[in-house]
Amino acid sequence: MQPINQIFSEITSPKNIVITMHQKPDGDAMGSTLGLFHFLTQFGHQVKVISPTNWASFLSWMPGCKDVLDYEKEQVKSDAFITEADWIFCLDFNTMSRTKKMESALLNAKAVKILIDHHQQPQVEVFSFGASDTSKSSTAEMVYDFITGSGYHDKINNEVAQCLYAGVMTDTGSFRFPSTSANVHAMVSDFLKRGLKHSVIHEALFDNFTENRLRFIGNVLSNRMQLFYEYNTALISIPQQDLIKYDIKTGDTEGLVNYPLSIEGIKLATIIIDRGEERKLSFRSKGSFDVNTFARKYFEGGGHFNASGGQSKDSLEEVISKFKKAIAENKTELSTYQF
Length: 339
Ligand code: 5GP
Ligand code: MN
What we know:
The protein has helices spanning 27-40, 75-84, 103-108, 139-150, 158-171, 182-193, 198-206, 211-223, 240-245, 291-299, 316-329, 331-335; strands at residues 2-3, 16-21, 46-51, 69-70, 87-91, 112-117, 129-132, 225-228, 233-238, 268-274, 279-285, 302-303, 307-312. The protein is of the alpha/beta class and 339 residues long.
């Protein structure tokens, strides 16, 4: 993988471009891809954003989102764009397997593949060019750096700013995680000077849920959370029947894993959701406990040092007992964490 600045000289010559992201895109995946989309379209490129799967409805306000293709719903159309592409940008994921059913189409495409991502251990051999930096707060911040580095900073219009702001804000937990650097605040300052209305974006992302979702969270916190104080750990496990009862949709469980971290002393929070076809896990930690390694070792997953995920085909009960064994094996690390 060559440095991404080597494509800057090609940016102005019109191309067919596909931009994609990880499955079940979150705010950063959708925000960074659409931010890049609104930048690239200004050069006369034909640009298509394709998501490997559907996404949470609270992301749909983003400019350009209604034209994003869902690969699972529109595979033939999506494959045509992928086959015809000169460039494919892969944003906010480190390995092609994170695109689920799109993986083989992406690998077989003749296009030049370009990575922009902040996860650990990227699959560098499948990308011709790229930027991979685990110190970055978000892929949205990296798209901003890409735009600035290309020399076309003046092309940051309101659409670009809105999408990139949504990405960085969600991936930094509203600017509270340690990854929120001076560069992040300088970028946001730049957006505000250009007229961005940030409070509208917070409202669009956080104040648009259903009554059912709030009642679901009440039930989860009352009945589905276990605490393991000897390990500074909390576990939320959600059976599929809860998802059905409260009519829970993609995205409604986003952020739930963070709730137990507000309990004094809790340094590892985990959520296991029984999605029927698989059990999906999310891990969040504070300080020195490395959940990227933990997810890789026990749950076929990965991610970042303090935020990761995994999955399992075992039953919910089996996954819970595997988790309990895993924290017991990590007792020393969990009880001697440091900031
Ligand atoms: P989340 O818990 O929000 O789904 O994911 C947290 C982080 O872990 C994200 O950066 C995501 O890319 C990564 N991640 C989540 N699930 C998986 C997984 O199954 N495999 C890998 N390699 N990474 C994951
Ligand atoms: Mn991200």
